[in-house]
Amino acid sequence: MGLVNTDAIVLRTYNLAEADRIAVCLTRSAGLVRAVARGARRMKSRFGAALEPFTLIRMAFYEKENRELVSISNAEILKSHFDLAAQLEASEVLAYMGELVSEFAPPHEANEKLFRMVVACVEALETSPGSTRLVSRYFEVWLLRLAGLFPDVRSCAECGRQLGESDPACLDVEVSPHCQKCSRGPATRLLPETQRTVMATQRLPPVDFAVTFKELSEQSEAQLAELTHRLIVRALERRPRTLVASPR
User: Fold this and answer.
1) pTM of the prediction?
2) In this structure, is residue 215 part of a structural domain?
């Protein structure tokens, strides 16, 4: 049995037996873990509010070889996001993020970029309360990119030509990007604004992305949402249970 100390963000929790709780956490050094917190539901639990969803914590847990569940021995709050839970749209986005991270992140496989991306998106929701849709799109693009499922729309997959606003990517049925010259058969041509938005996710943190594209047209946001949702449904082979609505 080994003791692990790491930063973590709580994604979801479930009740277990009469007094315990299972917390699904994305950790910095151990990836996705499902952890048992003994006595967490008691009035005088040592965990207090540390296991509230999307609380950033410093946690210590014991793990056994070949055992999926680990056992939390201590959890200290580093940053809470209690106010977000009271905001309907933000709480829906958090639930959506929690579901997708739980589906896409392999158990016990550290992914520093994923951890930092999720933490940054939660902080962006808190900093910019009206940016839930933009943060959702940013999160989806990066989750898919880190899983190797998001197309690189910067160049044509066939001839290698650089793509941009003057020659946006044309995505075929396999969501492979092509320039107009190489594009054949049914294809979705990204709007210049959509192309610019996708490219910006690679250089901007989520809070800056939300500010920069706060005037993004509904047409471009809808096109981006259609693309990310299409790729997510293909990967999961179902629609997410907590799917965030596309733009109106």
Assistant:
1) 0.92
2) no
